[in-house]
Amino acid sequence: MQKTRPKILIGGVGNVLLGDDGFGVELANRLMSHDGLPEWVKVIETGIGGMSLVQELMYGYEALIILDAYARGGKPGQLYFLEPVLPDLSALSAQEIRDYFADTHYATPIRALSLLAHVAEPPETIRIIGCEPEELDDMKIGLSPVVSVAVDKAVTMVTDLLKHYPARGLGMVEEKDKTF
Predict the structure, then answer these.
(1) DSSP H or E run through 79
(2) Rounded to two decimals, what is the model's pTM?
């Protein structure tokens, strides 16, 4: 009897035209070319388009790891390992829900996951690997040196997490984060 393989989606998000906001995209690209990832892991980069993340998640995954720049006021290059909390939209009217999802300027991973929760079942386990940016919102291609170093560390972080999956899940998170 063959065991069912776990399915993990890793999604890199961000805008490569805004300096360190491209952290998630760069990390996803590095992981895509990494030889040591298990066959049951799929890595995508979505840029700033949340809909492609929703579309991919419709295929059904046990777990999702989101890779993104994440400004929390820490030291530039600091990595965070978090569990997001999806907003409760049950008290919103149909008009408010439509407005919440219609504003494409806010195509964040949390909004994409909230949309998924309205149309399908989100993965049971969702984690965020975020990196404190040094430079955001400047029209600049390329990561700052400190965030480039963090990408290397994050590759190791991801591969270490996957080595122990599913026996230990995706590890303990720093905290549940409501502001992502």
Answers:
(1) strand 79-84
(2) 0.84
